[in-house]
Amino acid sequence: MCGGKVAKTDPEADAQAAADKAVTETNKKKALRNGANTDSVLASANDSTNKAKTTLGGG
Q: What is the pLDDT of residues 37-48, one digit of tens each?
C-alpha cells in the first residue's frame, strides 16, 4: 500500500440519502404542479364561493 487512506463507504447511507433527495424533488415538483392547477376548472369546483348547485344522476 502507498500509505493512502482507505475511504470507508456506507452503501445503505448513500442509498438513503439518494432516496431522501428523490422524495424531496418529487414533492417539490408535485407542489409546483398543484400550484399551477389552482386556475383549472376542477380546482374552481372546490371553491366555496361557487354556489352553483348541480344534480348528478338526475336524482
A: 655 555 555 555
